[in-house]
Amino acid sequence: MKKLLVLALMAVSMTMTAQSKSQADLQKKWGAVIEAIAMVESEGNPKRVSRNGLYVGYLQISEILVRECNRIAGYKKYTYADRYDKQKSINMFIDYQEFHNKTGNMEKAIRLWNSGDVNCMMRKARTEGYYKKVMSKYTSLAALR
After folding, report:
1. What pTM value is reported for the model?
2. Contacts of 48 (CB under 8 A, 6+ apart)
3. C-alpha dihedral sign at 42, 48, 52, 55
């Protein structure tokens, strides 16, 4: 019985470690672009609220995006309050990108985040100014590393 319990605990621990590693790997993959977007969106402030009150937090997340992330997850993974939590905001960004930007294209990630339009690459003119701002910030941050 003890042996079975130990094996079960080891399996759970290994699964949790694999999930954490996977999330950590995804955060590394998206880290630099997330940081650049956050600097453009909120100057890195997780408590920032847009002038119209619709977008909040580190990545300026709307209630619509929270609902979309929950739809992607298949359950209520995030609350509206989670938008003020830097790590949960990052997790929402990753979930959204991994679902709608499976190739991990950085340009698409930036344009998609700005527009919310999965066809954003076909409508680049709408997001050109934002894309240039984020890329400028991305380049500045890369120079500091």
Report:
1. 0.81
2. 41, 42, 56, 57, 58, 60
3. positive
Q: Is 133 helix (H, G, I), strand (E, B) or coil?
A: helix
Q: What is the pLDDT along the chain (145 residues), one digit of tens a residue?
A: 544 433 444 444 444 444 445 777 777 778 899 999 999 999 999 999 999 999 999 999 999 999 999 999 999 999 999 999 999 999 999 999 999 999 999 999 999 999 999 999 999 999 999 999 999 999 998 787 6
- What distance lies between CA 138 and its chain's CA centroid? 16
Beta bridge pairs of residue 56: 49, 61
Residue labelled with tokens 């400028």: 136
**94 close to 27: Cβ distance less than 8 angstroms:** yes
End-to-end CA distance of the chain: 53
